[in-house]
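Most newcomers find our protein records easier to grasp once they have seen one. Read left to right, the backbone structure tokens trace the chain's path through space. Nothing more is needed to start thinking about how sequence determines fold. An example says more than a description, so a record of this kind follows:
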Amino acid sequence: MNVVVIDDEAGVRRTVAMILEDEGYEVMTASNGKEGLVHALARPADIVLCDVKMPEMDGLEFIDAYRREGGSGLIVTMTAYGSVEMAIEAMKRGAYDYIAKPFSADSILLTLRKAEEREKLRKEVGRLRRQVKTETRNPELVVKSPAMVKAVELAEKVAPHPSTVLITGESGTGKEVFARLIHVASDRNDKAFVPVNCGAIPENLLESELFGHVRGAFTGAERDRVGLFDEANGGTLFLDEIGELPTALQVKLLRALQDREIRRVGESTSRRIDVRIVAATARDLAQEVEGGGFRSDLFYRLNVVNIHLPPLRHRSEEVPLLVKHFVDRYNQILSTNVESMAPAAMSLLVSYPWPGNVRELENVIERAMVLADSTQITPEQLPQAVRDKDAHVGTPDTLPEDELSVKKRTAALEKQLIARALEITGGNRTRASDLLDLSYRALLYKIRDYGLD
């Protein structure tokens, strides 16, 4: 197991390292909390042995920073006689145990072996939980394309960790479904999953909605109100359309993420909170940052792990699977008996560009099932926009007014151009971006969007 030993006394570091290395542990040492934080995160530590009293960053500050940055190793504090109260405070903040100085080789090995057994048990429980959650995966999650399979694998991999996740993709691609997958596959699945659409709440109410308020904080605040952070305590808070968050609230959200503390409107003191944040946006937040519309420090805090969901038009192989899923669901909801989709109808569905993505497909299937006269859906039950072949291929003189989006109509051509540029340059993305007259960042985004990576 990997162990990081952090102590400002060189003699203590050497002694502990020798004891542990003789027992087969892989040991890295650091002389202060800041250096130890770098080591513990760069090569994820299984166990961290950390002195409580150190210059620059003490043990308590280290614990807070380590957990805030997503560190998941067990922390054992080392404390001199007279500092036991600090060690107990460290345990309240998440340390597993403490060792009082001076300690013997036997006492330190016994403590670490107990920690090691606990860590192995935790990982095994986590593995079994993930296995169960994967086998009983959210029935809303229907994936087949390589890009979506990768997205699911990434979501399940990050789920056990407390790191923030930013899910990007067009409206209707299933970002909330993925957020729920992350919650269900995490150790927080027995606590609340609280979704909030940041763009659907008036700006003057959003702070109170997120953080709560106390009675008398403003006109109309007749009683204390619990905020969504409190409701999600111990669980997951899903911030949908995070790009719509006003600048003033971006600052307060950043502070809550950094300090893991919140303060209700009208309250004078802050309270610690344990909430895992998953955010989602249909916007290009990197571009918003460049334009000054979104804070760069908040963006980097949210974008620890990015999961991008490509639009449905780029994963048409999933349409038949989604159709079957929605038919099965709405047979139960509508008490209908639809058994199949006529080949001609399925062909139209597969070739349609789906500007509204999966959400639009679901609405089309529900409508068709309401209108169906038999156990099979035919093209006649599909909306005109889906049946109109000009809406699929499209010529300027036949396209309806709401289908004139150049961006949507040129998607296939853009994909071909990018693929050709990468072929010409032997995969050199910098040269390819020059050929395509795209910024390097925009090219990376499109390569991922089109599944060309």
Observations:
- Residues 133-137 have pLDDT under 50 and may be disordered.
- The two ends are 34 Å apart (CA to CA).
- The chain has four domains: 2-127, 143-310, 313-403, 410-449.
